[in-house]
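Title: Prediction job returns without error message
Component: structure pipeline
Severity: low
Priority: P3
Assignee: unassigned

Description:
Job completed but the reporter wants confirmation the result is attached to the right record. Sequence as submitted:
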Amino acid sequence: MGKPKEVRVSQWYFGGLASAGAACITHPLDLLKVQMQTQKGKNISIFQLTGITIKNQGVTGLYNGISASLLRQLTYSTTRFGIYEVAKQHLTVKDGQAIPFYMSAFLAGLGGFAGGFVGNPADLVNVRMQNDVKLPPEQRRNYKNAIHGLYRVAAQEGILRLWAGASMTCSRAALMTIGQLSFYDQIKGLLLASPYFGDDVATHVMSSFLAGAVATTLTQPVDVLKTRAMNAKPGEVKSILLLIKNTAMEGPLAFFKGYIPAFVRLAPHTILTFVFLEQLRINFGFIKQTHE
């Protein structure tokens, strides 16, 4: 048995806090991404859209629906990071060896699926609040904040409506969490194994940037379908297969609509989340003994 070594590991709720912190910074890009994805036919650049939003509503218009965004991260990300972290720590053997990648991907998928389910109501309200601005005044939902939105959906459309599009939210969340968490751990492990990288911010940024690229590619087709399903009026989407067929008729690239804004949003969000998470772990994580 080698000499004991102390490592700091994350508390289960650190992921939710880190994601909420990142969401405060990246929310405007998320807002623009949703507005670009729900356009049918006409294409407008992200810069034009930013200009229009600021001209019509001022800079605060870019923070429309921030309460739903924060509620979503605190439900969805706390669950997925929590499940992944707790299970990973439980399964890590005493010598500190990382769990195999297939195991890590399975745990991330499981955590993501559960997180998607728990976070679906906040996600639904989030998408609706961001898209409200584009609707004609008489069709706007005018939710005051996330809690008001949840109450209105449950009261007017039934409580089950809060889980509209849940199959896609859960699938997307599972793929997203595999892309972000298990690939982040895998890439970070490979970088740390080389002599050029230490456990520092540069390594965390590099690993999370690459994990963000993997996650965007895995989730973009599901994301487009999910956004369209959530924005549809009741009864408009007959089945998921029909939605896939209608989207496919616009050409295969329709599934990757808004890929650049999605990556431009997800990369900073992923980087900030992991940089915040690593700082929380290094400064406030609990100490675990391992044997080299």
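Comment from assignee: result matches the submitted record. The first helix runs from residue 14 to 37.
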